[in-house]
Amino acid sequence: MWINLQNNFFKKIAALGKSQQLYIIPTLDGIKLAFLNVTLLVIGLVYANNYVLLFNFILFCLFLGSMYYTHFNLQGLELISAKTSPLHVNDKGVLTLQFKTTSGLGHYFLGLRLQNNLIDLQDKNFTFSFEANSQNTLKVDVPIKGIIRGDLVISRLCIETLFPFHLFRCFVYFKHHLRIVVYPERKNLEIHHAQTIQEEKHDEGDDFTLNNFKPGDPLKRVHWKKLAQTNHWYSKKLNTPNSNPIMLSLTGDHLSKLDLENQLSSLCFALYQSHYQNIKYGLTLGNIIIAPDHSSFHLKNCLRALANYES
Amino acid sequence: MKVDIKKLSIFLVVFNALMMFKDLPMSILGSVLLIIFLSFIVTHKTLRSFFKIFILIASIILLKFLFKTYLLTEAGVSLVMILSALKLWEMDTESDHFNMFLILALLECCLFLLNPTFIAFFLGIIKIFIFFYFLLKIRNYDLTLLSGKRLLFLVVPSLFLSLILFYTFPRFTQGFLSTTNNQLLFSGADSQLSFKKLGPLNLSSKIVFRVYGLNAHKFPFHLLYWRQSVLWDFNKEEWRTGYLHFKSEQLTSPGPVVNYNIQLVQDYNEFLPVLDGVTRLIKSNLTYNFYTEHSFRLKNISRTSVKYNAITSFKEIPQILTPLMERKGLRLKSEQKEKIKELILKNKMDKSNLSDNEKFEMAIDFFKKRNYEYSLTPPAYSSLEDFILTGKAGYCSHFAAAFAYITRAIGLPSRIISGFQGGEFNPYDQSLIVREMDGHMWVEVYLKNIGWYKFDPTATVAPGRINLGAKSFHDKVEPFINLYYYQLPKSVLEFASFNHFSLWLDSLSSRFDTSLINFDKDKQQQILNSFIPKSISLGWLFSIALSGSMPLFWFFFSWLNKKKSNPNEKRYKKFIARLKKEGVEKLPHESVSSFRKRCLLKTNSLEDYINTETNHYIKYYYERSSDFKC
């Protein structure tokens, strides 16, 4: 119940859209301690016992002190940049955050709250700290993992802290457009549809790149024309795959969610396989048709299409 | 150091149980140990829940059986103790650990209720913070971050604020809950005397009260009698205080009086000890009644420290004898009353015309002829009459009861006074310390034309008990400690330096207790009035302290949080400010080099200055960047 209440509170605060404003709320432990304080005050008054009253005031002031401490632990922190590279479902990745600080006390045990369903922290209790009087610019790599496929832009990042006594939760929302792309998991299931396309054989003359000639390169790959022009030895490296291009697609239109995810995973694996085998590949996903090609950019396009498909 | 939090919790619960050993019934402490033992054996979840519910219900029934009411302090403390033992069964999650911390904090406060001393408080604070330290450690905090300077930043202002709040928080003279009829009574000097229950006496050195203001040179402290309660009612082997309330009474004549302050330090207080004589209480931190003449009783029994100021006149003798007092003072329901009366007056022919003085002398004579002996280990007597007729060995309670019986039997109103005699002078704070072992009983007999005349039957049996004081006398009577077949002289175990040290420690503890923690409303008002105008009430002062401390806390942390600027950055800022005066302002996102170029274009005269400062800053900036670690 408390966790639900807390999550609702976080959502409401996020909906306010305010950036870099610090919020502080007591944790469940903090509320329990406050309740104990009230109980002890009543006991101290009823029994006119000064020792109980003094003990109560010491606990109360540590409670109050920890509130200030928690608040100042986050104050002066500013997010400069947040960046993450695309990752696959169940794959590990890194979210790189860069901060600026004006605090002389440092920031300790800061946690990151990722309010999305695509990625999550590898370690739920992951925290990071910046020492007192550290550099103005601070960088931290947060280990993350993909949960479900999709393509999302997060407009706010929430940093929170419970330091030092877990009695208060202080958090701040930083406005930052962070694009998260999670591709489907790579599974060698072979449940997708693959169709080979027969195409005319091109003259290999045009589709190559030139590299510096290295001893051991076959002589038939030497670009003689260039040698004549520049008096410099070049080897031709063929870009064109050797095999016929293939079109990859789903096996049916109305698939169950599990089947769909499995087929997308299978397609994902096939995309990588084709890419590494130097085969031209294309992708058909519903209305989206990506013509066969072979490049890193092409692979990225295909994977992004898989990530976005009915997500 | 890896510490099992469950074992630490068990240690603290058992430690607290042992500290409350004297105040709680043995069955409660036994239950706590049983629950702890079961927590190791019963591990099955469902079975564990069943056991817990069963034990809780059984404990609530046991509490009702033991204390009759749940309103009693001991009942509440026992319940908290049992709950803390039950919580030991669930020490799985971090939330459980924190709940255990809260229960332990509550348990410590229960300990302060039963044992409100500085030592208990100090130990309690240490115990709780040790537990909290390990609680944080379990939460994977790098505690080095909390050490030293950082910890001081948190603890020092917190303690400072807590002390301000503590001293300004308005106190109430009496707590809100009155449990007069329910409280248990423990006392060095009993407020009742059951003859059948009198058995061997153990000498306890626990302090009952301290007296300040008596001049060490004027008073033979070991001879002073301290009157606490007056036992009027005799009913079937039991002497009780009964209920006789008087209105406030002034000293009859000004005469030489002694003015002194008493601080009661015992757990429960009901009757207030005062010097035996004609006494008037001047001031007390708790409200009291005149229970019987020159004896005082608190309106509500209290565990808190009671302090009062009294004046006593030695030379006067209480005179009042109302018809009710006479009836009570002569009441003697005993089958052997006539037989004993005959034995006392057997030599007198004209028994009806005897004066009070003659009767009194005959009573003393009869008592002396019994040849009683003083002993701390007398045999059990079947009745008071049995002791009077056939008994031999006894101590002050036996003798006082017997003499009061004798005087009542021959028609002299009498009453037993329960209190203390003697005490130890503490030179370190000029106080008289009266301990439980100084507990004593004597008799007051009403004699016409004289009044209530004090007579101490123990002095006729063992004068040494009065002249030497309780400790010296008992050491003289029994100079050895028996260890199986060996006898060890008590003097071997007594060191003068150790005794002096314990007296010094006691004076220190007393001063700390009275001045720093256990101050009362008057003292609080007196101290605060020396700093603030009298027109400001404590309630306002507390509110101001609480609300004023918030911004103070804020400024303190802001000051700490402020990053110290680097001298190089300061120098560059100064350079920017100077150029602003020259009419060149640095743009928000302008680089250092671009700014230099723009400056050089606009101000040719400061070329050297601009280059020097910019190069200096660039040098500093890149040197710092090379140290940058991701």
Descriptive report:
The complex is a heterodimer of chains A (311) and B (630). Chain A has 311 residues and is α+β, with helices and mostly antiparallel strands. Chain A has two domains: 2-183, Immunoglobulins (Immunoglobulin-like, Sandwich); 193-202 and 240-308, no CATH class. Chain A is 32% helix and 34% strand. In chain A, strands 1, 3, 5, 7, 9 and 10 form a six-stranded mixed beta sheet that branches. In chain A, helix 5 (257-276) packs antiparallel against helix 6. By secondary structure, chain B is an alpha+beta fold. Chain B has four domains: 5-142, no CATH class; 147-171 and 520-560, no CATH class; 192-478, no CATH class; 567-626, no CATH class. Chain B is 48% helix and 17% strand. Mean pLDDT of chain B is 81; it is low at 177-188 and 626-630. At the A-B interface, helix 2, helix 3 and strand 8 of A face helix 5, helix 6, helix 7 and helix 18 of B.
Q: What's the short story on this structure?
A:
The complex is a heterodimer of chains A (311) and B (630). With 311 residues, chain A is α+β, with helices and mostly antiparallel strands.
Q: Keywords, please?
A:
heterodimer; A: 311 residues; alpha+beta; Immunoglobulin-like; 2 domains; six-stranded mixed sheet; four-stranded antiparallel sheet; B: 630 residues; 4 domains; elongated
- The percent range for strand residues of chain B is 15-25%
Largest interface: A-B, 54 and 63 residues
Under CATH at level 1, the class of the largest domain in chain A stands as Mainly Beta
Question: Unreliable stretches of chain B, pLDDT < 50, 5 or more residues?
Answer: 177-188, 626-630
Sheet/helix structural class of chain A: alpha+beta
**Main sheet attributes: strand count, strand direction, barrel closure of chain B:** 6 strands, antiparallel
Structural class of chain B: alpha+beta
